[in-house]
């Protein structure tokens, strides 16, 4: 029923726990497609320790996470493709809850759930506070909601394979924000996305060799390919406003990215403060929106 795609690049210390979280699912109808994206450590050896015929290893030269996910989509046997990064993990009932959600809303192209941050043996709640607990329905006003929370995250998302291929899959030119680019194209081209506001997946901030801790070339950012959405910006006012806010956020983040990852998120014990990361992310998303509201209010007041 599910093809679980795990892109793998130098994750020898975390990949066992990630795969085990899939094997421990209460819903057992799945295959695991591990796409080895040119790892140079013992990652593949770790995967080979599992004796389960549902696990397949696809080896390819290093091409980045978008390339690995696209290869996984191509290799997937099933229409429902679940993504899981090689340092994150799922709750045992994740697939069970998601298959219920998909059966309830089969017309969608993308289904997601809430998640939290895991760091230093602690979990930081990331439920969407704008939604009721255990909210499960179509997101009819996604771009309005995305001004404060983009909702979808790669290890907490399931997509329809055929629909993803039809829109071109992940853009392999993009290495920062490639997941957001994909979700936006699915949301714009197909029926409303579906979301379940229950934490079923965990974003592991402690994992070694995390992509967000590595230096990136911002010329490969989603920010630099945003012109591909010109057509939609003209047709959809909510989407146009969301993109404008995203641009504001991106330029703020551009100047704080390296410092945030190297200094600010360290607390006095020199450990990662996951709560700070979540707070910073939400503040940056909300700040341009709040500034716009304030400026609009002042403009109206001045005219009066």
Coarse shape? globular
Give me the count of strands. 10
- Count of DSSP-assigned helices: 10
Structural class: alpha/beta
Strand content: 15-25%
Unreliable sequence segments: 257-274
Q: State the CATH topology of the largest domain.
A: Spore Coat Polysaccharide Biosynthesis Protein SpsA, Chain A
Task: Supply the key terms.
10 helices; Spore Coat Polysaccharide Biosynthesis Protein SpsA, Chain A; single chain; alpha/beta
Could you please describe the fold and organization of this structure?
By secondary structure, the chain is α/β, with parallel strands linked by helices. It has 2 domains: 2-212, Spore Coat Polysaccharide Biosynthesis Protein SpsA, Chain A (Alpha-Beta Complex); 218-303, no CATH class. It contains 10 helices and 10 strands. The chain has helices at 15-23, 43-48, 65-75, 94-104, 142-145, 161-166, 178-189, 230-235, 237-264, 274-303, and strands spanning 2-8, 30-37, 55-60, 80-83, 89-90, 110-119, 122-125, 136-138, 157-160, 194-204. Strands 1, 2, 3, 4, 5, 6, 7, 8, 9 and 10 form a 10-stranded mixed sheet that branches. It is globular, with a radius of gyration of 19 Å. The termini are far apart. The model is unreliable at 257-274 (pLDDT under 50).
């Amino acid at each position: 029923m599910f093809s679980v795609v795990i892109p793998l690049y130098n994750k020898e210390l975390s990949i066992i726990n990630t795969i085990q979280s899939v094997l421990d699912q209460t819903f057992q109808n799945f295959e695991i497609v591990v796409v080895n994206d040119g790892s140079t450590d013992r990652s593949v050896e770790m995967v080979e320790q599992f004796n389960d015929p549902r696990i397949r290893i696809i080896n390819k030269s290093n091409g980045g996470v978008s390339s690995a996910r696209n290869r996984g989509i191509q290799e997937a046997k099933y229409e429902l493709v679940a993504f899981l990064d090689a340092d994150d993990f799922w709750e045992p009932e994740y697939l069970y809850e998601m298959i219920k959600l998909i059966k309830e809303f089969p017309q969608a192209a993308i289904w997601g759930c809430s998640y939290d941050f895991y760091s230093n043996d602690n979990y930081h709640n990331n439920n969407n506070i704008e939604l009721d607990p255990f909210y499960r329905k179509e997101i009819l006003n996604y771009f309005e909601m995305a001004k404060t929370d983009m909702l979808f995250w790669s290890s907490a998302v399931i997509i329809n394979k055929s629909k993803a291929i039809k829109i071109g899959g992940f853009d392999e030119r993009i290495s920062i924000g490639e997941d957001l680019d994909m979700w936006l194209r699915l949301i714009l081209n197909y029926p409303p996305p579906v979301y379940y506001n229950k934490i079923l997946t965990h974003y592991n901030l402690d994992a070694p060799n995390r992509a967000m801790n590595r230096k990136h070339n911002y010329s490969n950012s989603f920010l630099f390919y945003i012109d591909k959405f010109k057509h939609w910006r003209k047709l959809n006012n909510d989407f146009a406003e969301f993109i404008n806010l995203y641009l504001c956020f991106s330029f703020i983040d551009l100047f704080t990215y390296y410092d945030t990852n190297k200094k600010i998120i360290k607390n006095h014990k020199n450990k990662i403060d996951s709560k700070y990361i979540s707070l910073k992310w939400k503040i940056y998303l909300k700040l341009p929106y709040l500034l716009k509201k304030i400026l609009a209010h002042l403009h109206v007041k001045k005219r009066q």
